Amino acid sequence: MLSERRLEVLRAIVQDYVGTEEPVGSKALTERHRLGVSPATVRNDMAVLEEEGYIAQPHTSAGRIPTDKGYRLFVDRLAGVKPLSTPERRAIQNFLDGAVDLDDVVGRTVRLLAQLTRQVAVVQYPSLTRSTVRHVELLSLAPARLMLVLITDTGRVEQRLVDTQTPFADTSLADLRARLNSRVVGRRFTDVPQLVQDLPESFEIDDRATVKAVLATLLETLAEEAEERLMIGGTANLTRFGHDFPLTIRPVLEALEEHVVLLKLLGEAGESGMAVRIGHENAYEGLNSTSVVSVGYGSGGEAVAKLGVVGPTRMDYPGTMGAVRAVARYVGQILAES
């Protein structure tokens, strides 16, 4: 276990390196921070930190930089989540409140996160498998053609056409709409197939084929939308950190194109807590020089998706974690009110 003083020295090294981009020496530390000890003591503490693998000497310079292990200890023990200022919180709320639909919410969230953190922002769409039904609407477009509109609790709207073998009376359509909604509103999509499986048997024989067609379309919609979707923004921000990536930035850009990789990095959407994966903690080799900060968002107490940022390991962790958490909270409020 490191002493409190050596933890303070590590914190100072991380803060200085993130701020200056330069390896940090003992003289600079004692000048910038009130450590209460002599430069010789700081040098000794730095030697211990280096021996333990928390800092490293990048080249012949006298300065040291944090390692992945050092950043991990900083995040776990030393980094508080930096609260946003009142103007920043107001700006987030005003920017997101103008969204007109779910695509707009996700698009605005990506741009906002990229601007606030100056990193690459990644936002996962709410998963239908974790969503509930808000309403099912059925509209008659022609004697033998209907439109099914599925509205989720996260504001997602799916529309599908249903062709029927025979005309369907308006009274039968209203009856089907009422019975369908009474069974599925407020229920998880994963529960819908079982909830509606015996519904056709409750209708007249002449109407059952149409009821089955509507239900088949509803269940197909759930299957089609099961694939996870996400949106990325701010990739150009990485060009500001070219020297933070060994040799080339190309492996990072290639990894960002693989949505399956990004979804794994964000983690399971049901996990609502903050997650920080640093450097080699990222299983994908192309992202070993990056850190990923992610958190779940959703309406109510359960996360329906994840959002976060990807950037170099030399990251302002407290500020980034604060921005990611604040944006997730506002997006959750918007989904709850939509």
Description:
The chain has 338 residues and is an alpha+beta fold. The chain contains 12 helices and 10 strands. It has helices at residues 4-20, 26-32, 39-51, 68-78, 86-97, 102-117, 170-184, 192-196, 208-224, 250-257, 259-266, 317-337; strands spanning 55-56, 65-66, 120-124, 133-142, 145-152, 157-163, 230-233, 275-278, 290-297, 305-312. The strands form 3 sheets. The chain has a 5-stranded antiparallel beta sheet with strand order 7-3-10-9-8, sandwiched between helices. Strands 4-5-6 form a 3-stranded antiparallel beta sheet. The chain has a two-stranded antiparallel ribbon with strand order 1-2. A hairpin with an 8-residue loop joins strand 1 and strand 2. The chain starts with a helix and ends with a helix. 38% of the residues are buried.
Question: What is this structure, in a nutshell?
Answer:
The chain contains twelve helices and ten strands. It is an alpha+beta fold.
Attribute tags:
338 residues, 3-stranded antiparallel sheet
The 3D shape can be described as elongated
Helix/strand order? HHHEEHHHEEEEHHHEHHEEEH
Report the sheet-strand fraction.
Answer: 15-25%
Low-confidence stretches: none
- Summed over residues and divided by their number, the pLDDT gives a mean of 86
Radius of gyration: 26 Å
Count of alpha and pi helical runs: 12
Distance between the termini: 49 Å
Please give the share of residues in helix: 40-55%
Give a count of the beta strands, DSSP E runs of length 2 or more.
10
Which structural class fits the helix and strand makeup? alpha+beta
- Major beta sheet, strand line-up: 7-3-10-9-8
Most strands sheet: 5 strands, antiparallel
